[in-house]
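We modelled the chain as a single entity of 89 amino acids. Its sequence is:
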Amino acid sequence: MNKLPNFKLKLIDDTEIKSSRIKKTILFFYPKAMTSGCTIEVCDFQSNLNKFNELGFKIIGASKDNIEKNIKFAEKYKLKYPLASDKNK
């Protein structure tokens, strides 16, 4: 299994996650909040969140959008998993 590169992401709850701390986590990237394709993607993870949790996995979604836009995105779709800002790509 390949190792993740070292990185830090700021989450919408104003915390930070480091790649070295990601264990049993599905980290997915979406290009831009509030677009049709990305909305489908984040809502699909939301719909299947219980299945992932039953398997012991956490979900984190990340985009290059700023924290404020990701907060609005999460609130609009009532996401129960964190989103992160990856401004440095």
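As a brief sanity check on the tokenised model: DSSP finds three helices and five strands in the chain. The mean pLDDT is 91.
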